[in-house]
Design goal:
Pfam families: eIF3h_C, JAB. This protein is of the alpha+beta class. Helices cover about 40% and strands about 20% of the residues. It has a single domain, classed as Cytidine Deaminase, domain 2 (3-Layer(aba) Sandwich). Strands 2-1-3-4-5-6 form a 6-stranded mixed beta sheet.
């Protein structure tokens, strides 16, 4: 899933374009397992007849036919330098979290990632902010009354990334075959 998100950004998000997509998976015991994702296609104003909901339903139907996890568990978005809090993000996350309580939004920052460490964070709206979103009153008075500040709008969910055994074997084989000079290439995100 992480590699698909990075690939989606590298293919469509160059410049200042934000890329978004759907996260698919399932809830197992007390944890959310994200096992697949697919991107929202970029479309222009010329594509006025493009129906995003119909596209999502068709993709999930196709995935179900090939026996891949097809349950919505959230969505992802790219951002720059952690500036992702917008009204559109709040509305989207509220609708996801209202429908499926465990839903998360994964925020991928390609600029921080290019500096050396993967910048991927998972967030959920706090219960206080969920109440404010239900009322749809984002006035300063309503936020003050609910005791909501920037720090307690989101709760960060810890992420654990797991590779399949086949990927681990492939990486081991690549490391074994590579010469000492070529090892730096394996650290490239493109690899």
């Amino acid at each position: 899933v992480v590699l698909k998100i990075i690939k989606h950004y590298q293919e469509e998000g160059q410049g200042n374009e934000v890329v978004q997509g759907v996260l698919l998976g399932l809830v197992v015991d007390d944890r959310l397992e994200i096992t697949n994702c697919f991107p929202f296609p970029q479309h222009t104003e010329d594509d006025a007849d493009f129906d995003e909901v119909q596209y999502q339903m068709e993709m999930m139907r196709s995935l179900r036919h090939v026996n891949i996890d097809h349950l919505h568990v959230g969505w992802y978005q790219s951002t720059y330098y952690g500036s992702f809090v917008t009204r559109a993000l709040l509305d989207s996350q509220f609708s996801y979290q209202h429908a499926i309580e465990e839903s998360v939004v994964l925020i991928y920052d390609p600029i921080k990632t290019a500096q050396g460490s993967l910048s991927l964070k998972a967030y959920r709206l706090t219960p206080k902010l969920m109440e404010v979103c239900k009322e749809k009153d984002f006035s300063p008075e309503a936020l003050k009354k609910a005791n909501i500040a920037y720090e307690n709008m989101f709760e960060e969910v810890p992420i654990v990334i797991k590779n399949s055994y086949l990927i681990n074997v492939m990486l081991w084989e690549l490391e074994k075959k590579s010469a000492v000079a070529d090892r730096h290439e394996l650290l490239s995100l493109a690899s």
